[in-house]
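Thread: Modeling a multi-component assembly for a lab meeting

Hi all, long-time lurker, first post. My supervisor asked me to bring a structural picture of a complex we are working on to next week's group meeting, and I have zero experience with this. I have the sequence lines for every component (698 residues in total). Could someone generate the structure of the whole assembly? Inputs are pasted exactly as I received them:
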Amino acid sequence: MSASGEAVVEAVAARRELVNASVSEYLPIDKPERLYRASRHLLDAGGKRLRPAVTLLVAEALTDTEPLGADYQSFPTLDASGPDEIDLMAAAVSIETIQSFTLIHDDIMDEDDLRRGVPSVHSAFDTETAILAGDTLYAKAFEFMLATGAPPERTVRALSELARTCTRICEGQSLDVAFEHRDDVTTDEYITMVEQKTAVLYAAAARVPAILLGADDETTEALRQYGLDIGRAFQIRDDVLDLTVPSEKLGKQRGSDLVEGKRTAVTLHAAEHGVDLDDLVVSETPAEVTEAEIDAAVAELDAAGSIEYARTLSRDLVESGKSHLEVLPDNEARRLLAGLAEYLIERGY
Amino acid sequence: MSASGEAVVEAVAARRELVNASVSEYLPIDKPERLYRASRHLLDAGGKRLRPAVTLLVAEALTDTEPLGADYQSFPTLDASGPDEIDLMAAAVSIETIQSFTLIHDDIMDEDDLRRGVPSVHSAFDTETAILAGDTLYAKAFEFMLATGAPPERTVRALSELARTCTRICEGQSLDVAFEHRDDVTTDEYITMVEQKTAVLYAAAARVPAILLGADDETTEALRQYGLDIGRAFQIRDDVLDLTVPSEKLGKQRGSDLVEGKRTAVTLHAAEHGVDLDDLVVSETPAEVTEAEIDAAVAELDAAGSIEYARTLSRDLVESGKSHLEVLPDNEARRLLAGLAEYLIERGY
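Re: Modeling a multi-component assembly
Sure thing. I ran the full set together rather than chain by chain. Output:
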């Protein structure tokens, strides 16, 4: 059974507040001040904190502690061989710090001036500072993951997961950039890219707490699969929302992926089923495109079954993700993790 | 006693070949190929490999093995409690990988088109790829440091050293950028910046092998000091060489630091002793400056005692660095480390 959407939203919000307080604590505005202000810029601008919420909920579920009853600085180890104080909040902040570093560098690469409703770091500061802020967060994420107090063998495994995750995120981003210059990308290649660019960090968010708490291999592997599945579902759902959610709710022009010629699960399926993507939208910037033009393009994608394909794909991934949660004790935190998987594809934006 | 300059050059060259072979092995041209080619671009373009040479020589000195007699994949641990196969080459490649990542990102920030006689990564590829290549090497450096086979407690300490080193390099680079916009930088601030931007990686190169091999705290701390001293000496010597080495030997216009208004140990000392830096060189680009103009500026700096100041400072730092080597067994590798310290300030370019 999954927790209701409302319960998930509340659970994520409650943990978000704790994560935000910890970000301020772990990442104070040190000297050089400009560098640290730039490093904190996006972290302070908001964000749902879904990944650290996954980390904390997995810890709660594994240790069978009451949600939010746990002190995130002192989770009990699972096998009684380790210390009784493993600081899962340090791991959660580490994961969010990696996410923030990738957003800062991605915004430079994509020349995006806005993020979370505020100027991106390179816009608010400058490109030099943005590159350095990302590099600083990168190192800090490893420092935080070294500060959980877990036994060294587990810390080494968690760091190994973190390093390999970062490598794969870079590989995924590199594929994403390369796909912009290719006309023959397949849906399979796209899903691989999404897995590397987005899903691996969800996988790390779910797996790392299991490693640090001393869970067995079956459990850590199942949690990795949960993260991979919901991460892919999340991105593919984003592709659909870009087409179906009104612009004012989306916070940007609906269909901007189409206008920008971005390949998505929807458009790649359509291309494989005879739709000519170059003819879908003629306008070349989100500013000049009309709602009627987007409506016509969405109708064509709908007729090709491509929107339904992406919806079904993300739904299947969420079901698969939830099935992996069976390794966890049957408790409220597990129900929230299942609910969170559903929330990722049921959210309106 | 220090090894002769000739012996040091030979020792570094012999280890460089082994490091280069290991770089190819640890960092194959994987997929996405463009990303990995960009990641390897500077590593393949050469470089002295001074930092990994320090790492390997410290390992040889500590374990009292004959220089180059050691198999870098299987160094013996010092205290007999650990395994007999600690791969110091993985650590050496990790340090060099960090160095390469910082060069790639620094070149983007400084808009430098050339590095080691080849186009910088963002020139040979593009800025997006260069950011990602740096980010990939960053993660790989942690992966390599996780692959030495050292006991987990030591691996955790080595990774902690690596992460904190990266944070400090970013802080140092941030100070360097900030100094370009300030007229009141002091020599003390400059030396702090050099320590963070450059010297900490030498410190890590010297300290990490001691940690991994299980040396005591006195030894690891002395080696850290050795690295800090020679790293600072290296940079301050570079500041002098920019003024005194003929352009054709330097590979760039002599005095380009002056033309570009870069603050150095020499110019900051001069400013503190009444020299007006703005009047030193009128030409604004290395292309338009004349040898006569540089000669006049150098004469003024010389008259202020600033060149002698920087020479003495780097010499004192090398002497200090060498004194810290007394914690090591008296062997050939230790003499090479002392000789390497002297080489850093005696090299012609």
